[in-house]
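step 4 of 6: structure.
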Amino acid sequence: MQTNPSTAVGAGTTFHVAQANYYYGSFLAVSNVNLDIPERKITAFIGPSGCGKSTVLRCFNRLNDLIPGAHVEGTIQYRGVDLYDKSVDATELRRRIGMVFQKPNPFPKSIYENIAFGARINGYKGDMDELVERSLRKAALWEEVKDKLKESGLSISGGQQQRLCIARAIAIEPEVLLMDEPCSALDPISTLRVEDLMHELKEQFTIVIVTHNMQQASRVSDMTAFYNAQATEKGGKQGYLVEYAPTQTIFNNPAQQATQDYVSGRFG
Amino acid sequence: MTATDPNAFSQSSSAEQHFSSDLSGRYRLDNIFRIASWVATVTALVVLAFLLIDVLIDGIPRLDWQFITSFPSRSAERAGILAPLVGTIWLLFVTALFAFPIGVGAGIFLEEFAGDNLFARILEVNIGNLAAVPSIIYGLLGLAVFVRVFLPITGGRTVFSAGLTLALLILPVIIVATREALRAVPSSLRQAGMALGATRWQTVREHVLPQAFPGILTGTILALSRAIGETAPLIVIGAQTFVPFVPSFRGTGFSALPIQIFNWVGRPQAEFHVNAAAGIIVLMIVLVAMNATAIYLRNRFQAEKM
C-alpha cells in the first residue's frame, strides 16, 4: 500500500518522507506518512477536510514553522538533505520551493512589483524587466496584463490573480512548486487554464498539489496520495496517509477500500 | 407599525406550524434598540455642542491677533497665549518624535516577532495596564527620571522633559493601536512574502507595514491629541503659567495651553475667564489641525496602497 520506507532515496526523488508525524503542540495532526515524491512529476494530495494534506504540504517549505508549536518527527528529506536539519536555512529553502496558496494573494502593489519583489529580495542581478516578462509569459498571463504592469495586482480577475501568484512563484526560479488548492477559488475556465499551465510547468518543476477536486487530481497528476481522517476522543481529527500510488492505480484499481469509496464519491 | 402583510404568501407549507409568522414583536425590539442608540448618540452630541457654543460665545470676541502674539500679563486685556501655544507645539513635536518610533517599533516587535510565549503575554498585560495608569503618576515618574536623573541631558524642568513624559504616557496607546493595525493585515500576505524567501523583516517592511500604516497613523494622532490636552503631568514636571518669553527646547521655563487655561479659569476676575475661553478655542484649533493632518495623511497612504 505505502511505499516501503526502507527504499533508498533514488535519483529523481524530490521529497523523501519516512515515518513522519506532524504535531501542533502535543496534538498529533497527521501520523505515519511515508512517501517519495518524484521529480518533474505532478503529485496530488487528496482526502477529506482535516486529513492533513495541507499540513504535509506546508512542511515541504517549512511554512509551518510560522505556527507556534508546529513540529515534525521522522524523516523529511529534500534531495537527500534533511529539511529540519539545523544547517538548513528556511529562508533559502523557500526560495527553492515556491508556493501557491488557496486564495489568490497578490501583494497590494503593482503587477510588476509583485513579480520583482521576490527577485529583488533574493539578490537577482539580471534584467528585471526581462524577468517580469518571462515569468508572466510562463504563467500564460503576459498577453493579458502587458499593458497594465503598473496597475494593482488586485485589479485583475481572480483567475488572473492566481496566475500572477504562479508567475511570482516561478520568477525566483524554484525547483519545486507547492500548490495548496490553487483552483478552489476559481471558476471552471480559470481552473482549466491553471491546469494547462501545470502541465507546461512540470517540464521544469516538481509540482505537489493539494486538491479537493477529484477530477482535477485525475486530470493533472502522475502520482496521487490519499489521506483520510479519523475522529479522536477529544473531538479533533487526526489525519493519516491511506494510500500512495500512481494516479491511474488510485482511481482505477486502489488497494484500499477507503480509497475506492472516496474516489468514487461514496464518502468524503 | 409595519405595512407588510405576513400572510402575503400562500400558507401552503407545513412549516407554518413550526415557525411563528408574527413579526411585530421582533420589529418592536428592532425599533426600541434603534431609538436607544439614537438617544445615546444625540446625548453625547448635545452635551458637546452645548460646551462648544458656550466657549465660542465667550471666547470669540477676545480671539484676535494680539491675543495670539502676546505674552502673559497681569491685566487680562493685554495677556496673550503666545508662550503656551509655542510650548504646546514644542511638546507635540517632542512627544511625537519619541513616542512614534518607540511605540510603533514595540508594536511591530510584539505582533510580528515576539511569538506567543509567556514573556510576550506578560508584556501584553502590562502594556494594557499602563494605558490605564493615571497621568499624574506618569508626571511623578517623569519628575523623578527625566527632571532629576537625566538632568544633564534634559536640562531639568524643560520642554524636553515634559515631552518625554507625555511620550511615556501615550506609548501604551500607540503600541496597542499599532498591534491592532498589524493584526488587521491578513496573514495570507505574510505567508506570501515568506514563501518567496523573504525574511520576516522584509515581509513586514515591504508588505505588512504599508497596509497597517494608515491605522497606525490614526492611532498615533489620537494618542497625541490626548497628550496635548494633558495638564496633570505637566504641573508635576513644572510647567509655568507666567512665561514672558518663547520657550525653547531645553530652556527652563515653559508653558502649555491646558496649563494656561487652567490658571486663567482659576482666577477670580471674569476677564480672565474670557481669556480661558479664547485659549480653549486655540487649543481646539490645534486639535482640529492635527486631526485634519491625520485624515489627509491617511487618505494619501490609502490611495498609495491600492
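step 5 of 6: annotate
 - Residues 158-171 of chain A form the longest helix (14 residues).
 - Strands of chain A lie at 13-24, 27-38, 42-46, 70-78, 81-82, 97-100, 176-180, 206-210, 223-231, 237-246.
step 6 of 6: archive
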